[in-house]
Design a protein that fits this description.
The protein has 22 helices and no strands. It is mainly α. The chain has two domains: 396 residues, Na+/H+ antiporter like fold, CATH 1.20.1530.20; 117 residues, Up-down Bundle (de novo design (two linked rop proteins)), CATH 1.20.1440. The two termini are 50 Å apart.
Length: 535
């Protein structure tokens, strides 16, 4: 029997907290939810929430990773693949080994296999946490892409290290060269599976281009299909979901109808809000539950161990990234060296942005209770508490201090508004030229064309900052065309289609940021929806 009370309780709590946050907005939203969940967890008499780790891996992780990949520009991701790979693979394994060494030598009873389990659990920064916190801080767009790309890909590295470390404890067997080969196999084939399934989805969407409901359903089902299919064949479901998200995002302007894209975005926004909110509240709730069940070391001592591991994880990331200040070739590609991305300020920000979250929580909760011989899994509760401390220190501590650090370093935000204005001016000026050069020769009412031209002249003048003056007499008589309004709308729709094709070209060329192109694409979709309802 499915118990809905805890689920209803969490969603209702999320709704209430969102109202409260709307009046506060002084701290990042994920941090607010974690702290709120932590406080709520200690209130007696409230429903007990038991978190099934498989639920996170199957219900929460695939859609969150898929949507995060969807919101990531494939062109930017590809341009930053070198630093993303080195952080997502090299830094994860380096952190796993270094944290394992610290845990082995400083935590009593923590033998090497257990230490490697803990290292693998706390090694990957979280995609949800990174995206939620760094967005809107005005960071260099290359740094944002690296952080988001790293947090999307590193889960596969961490999960491989985690599974082998747990297997070494449970079955007392571990062969390092086999682990290395399997990592390559499941990663490469996981990416391949995701790309293939994502491409197949695009082909299907292109054939049902005008059925918005089916488009939305397929979009929502994709991560829940891709992830288990890849896992069923022993491949990385994480990388498969990421690859599918990148492919469908790249082709979305071509394969989705305007209405399908509008409806899908609205549903995904709500779904992402709920999933993100629930998972962050659960982090706080699960900490209080684990503390109640803790029976190993004293709680204060375990918290000290957690702070030690948190410090180790933060310092290890700094030591891994710091050399890139003096030797950019160690981390960045040619484009990053040319743009001076890895200067000392950006490197510090990159080092301080290793927030842990949902993946660390899920892997810690997924630790088995017993070994193959039936004995209790050693130090399971200690690892859980330490993991929660690391999540709180990195997510809350680093997340809260990141804006202050940006301010202290004097990092000037990238002026995204200027680029957006340039993009709007280019699109509207091109639309005006399109009206003069191509629309005028088509079978549209000349006065309808003139009405639309005046609209775009006004937009261009406003974007240029000019003082627009009406050149035509307001009393100029209109022709006796009963379908004049329909003609005006059809002209606008033709121009709208031209603007959409122009945005696709600009997106492919990488002339403007994907974020600004998505903003204008959304506005064009809404314009078309409004216009078609009037026909």
């Amino acid at each position: 029997m499915i118990h809905l009370e805890p689920i209803i309780f969490i969603v209702a709590t999320l709704a209430c907290l969102s109202v409260v946050y709307g009046k506060v907005k002084r701290i990042p939203y994920p941090i607010f939810l974690v702290l709120a969940g932590l406080i709520i967890g200690f209130i007696p008499g409230l429903p007990t929430v038991r978190l099934d780790p498989e639920m996170i891996f199957l219900i929460f992780l695939p859609p969150l990773l898929y949507r995060a990949a969807w919101n990531t520009s494939w062109r930017d991701f590809k341009a930053s693949i070198t630093p993303i790979s080195r952080l997502a693979i090299g830094l994860v394994f380096f952190t796993t080994i270094a944290v394992a060494a610290v845990a082995h030598y400083y935590i009593p009873g923590m033998d090497w296999p257990l230490a490697f389990v803990l290292g693998a659990i706390v090694s990957p920064p979280d995609a949800v946490s990174a995206t939620s916190i760094i967005r809107g801080m005005g960071l260099n767009k290359r740094i944002v892409t690296i952080l988001e790309g790293e947090s999307l890909v590193n889960d596969a590295s961490a999960l491989v290290a985690y599974r082998y470390a747990v297997a070494a404890i449970v079955s007392s067997s571990f062969v390092i060269w086999k682990a290395g080969l399997q990592f390559l196999w499941i990663s490469v084939m996981g990416l391949f599976t995701g790309f293939i399934l994502g491409y197949i989805l695009c082909l299907i969407l292109k054939r049902i281009h005008n059925n918005a409901t089916v488009e939305g359903i397929l979009s929502l089902l994709t991560p829940f299909i891709v992830y288990p299919v890849a896992e069923r064949f022993g491949l990385s479901g994480v990388l498969a979901a990421v690859a599918a998200g990148l492919v469908t995002s790249w082709r979305s302007s071509e394969v989705f109808s305007y209405l399908g894209r509008t409806q899908s975005n609205a549903v995904w926004d709500m779904m992402g809000f709920i999933l993100n909110g629930v998972i962050f509240i659960l982090i706080g709730l699960q900490l209080s539950d684990s503390i109640d069940a803790f029976k190993e070391f004293t709680l204060s001592k375990t918290i000290q161990y957690g702070l030690l591991i948190s410090a180790a994880a933060i310092i290890i990331r700094l030591l891994f990234i710091a050399p890139a200040i003096f030797f950019p070739q160690l981390l960045g590609s040619k484009i990053h060296r040319e743009e001076g991305v890895f200067n000392w300020k950006n490197s510090i920000i990159l080092s301080w942005s290793g927030m842990r979250g949902v993946v660390s929580l899920a892997t810690a909760m997924a630790l088995p209770s017993t070994l193959n011989d039936g004995s209790v899994f050693p130090h399971r509760e200690t690892i859980l508490i330490i993991t929660f401390v690391v999540i709180l220190v990195t997510l809350v501590g680093q997340g809260l201090t990141l804006p202050l650090l940006i301010k202290l370093l004097g990092i000037k935000p990238d002026n995204n508004d200027d680029e957006e204005k340039k993009l709007r001016l280019l699109v509207n000026s091109s639309a005006l030229n399109y009206i003069d050069d191509r629309i005028s020769g088509k079978a549209f009412n000349s006065q309808a064309i003139e009405q639309v031209r005046k609209l775009y002249e006004l937009r261009v003048s406003w974007l240029k900052g000019d003082d627009f003056r009406e050149t035509l007499s307001g009393n100029q008589a209109l022709s006796g065309n009963d379908n004049f309004l329909e003609q005006v709308i059809n002209v606008q729709l033709a121009v709208t289609d031209f603007k959409r094709q122009l945005l696709i070209k600009l997106y492919r060329d990488g002339s403007f940021s994907a974020q600004n192109i998505r903003i204008l694409e959304k506005e064009i979709d809404l314009d078309e929806s409004r216009l078609r309802t009037q026909l």
